[in-house]
Input
Amino acid sequence: MKGIKVSVEQLQPGIFIQLPLKWFQHPFVLNNFKIKSTDQIKIIKNLGIKHVIAFPTKSDNKPLTGSEISIETETSSDKVNELKDELTVLKELRIEKLKQFRRNINRTEKNFKRSMLHVRTIMKDIRSRPVQAIDQASQLIDEISEQLLSKGDIVLHLMSESKEDENLYYHSLNVAILAMLIGKKKGLSKTSLTTLGMAALFHDIGKLKVPTQILRKTTPLTGPEENYLKLHPQYSVELLDLANDFDKKAKRIIVQHHELYDGSGYPNKLKGHQLDPLANILSVVNSYDNLCHPSDTKKAKTPYSALSHLFKRDKHKYEPHSLGLLVKLLGIYPPGTVVELDTGQIGLVISVNLSKLLFPNVLIFDPLIPKEQALIIDLDESHELKIARALNLNQISKEVYEYLSPRSRVSYFIEQAK
Output
């Protein structure tokens, strides 16, 4: 998108512009925007700048020519300053809310890291200290369950990516959180929600008994290798049997987490109503996270394309209600999705309020703002901004990629909306 230098005297509504100022030097929401009113033009002229950059391809109007520029009736400076002050106050409120949002993100990040530490300890202790490991897992799942069932909106945040050798831990926590969120939408009791959470947390623990070279292989598995990998649900149950009182229903769900609604799954090719209803939830969430994080990272799908793949190509494999709830849960633009706004700017969806899915929080690419201070826009409040489309990573430049840092490992965590 190429811009041209335009005098502020040539501006009119409908022209998409970039202000030659830093974000904190003007009262507008963004540096780039489409002019919507003559009042905005008056404020721009009052900023003390002579020119802006206009983008013809994003504009509905052309800059005025010399003969078209009319001598305006002078607007009192008091009136312009009043308009400017109104915008400035709104912007200051946005800035304060942005600071609060960053504080919330930092707090959620700390809680996420604490939960990940628990998961790491649980997985490492399951063989040597099975009873203690399962007790700690129960406490973790209870904490998540209580948060989900408490009153108030839940916000789903995009978290930092994992270390390469800890994918099992991140996958397990991710699947547990998403499965329990679906369980909440289904209206599960606290007992059933806990059972689902425990099954989700431990569903892949049997992979600890599968050779690493099989788990990390990026070329097609041989027949024997595939058969070995398919034993991991059984291995999971064997490890959990080390603790005699592990929930039997949770173990049944774990055994079924690779069964598919159309009968094409394993180990027993169960189908339809032969499957435990909670296994249907675990199955679809597990598949979604595996699409985002396959062993061959080159085949990884963005959250947006993973959901699209499940719904358009594989919907026959999953119980319809559970799949539908996953789509409703994550929304059209799940956290981790790179999007283009209707202004032409690029951003990264970093969180969604699960009661307002169409209005996520988006981290905006702006080369005039340092990366560590990047602007986060709450689309629920910025009614003039909308998402135009989702983008694949190959559709963005290297500069945008490095600025937004789309996660190679998409992980989620929840918090109560403040």
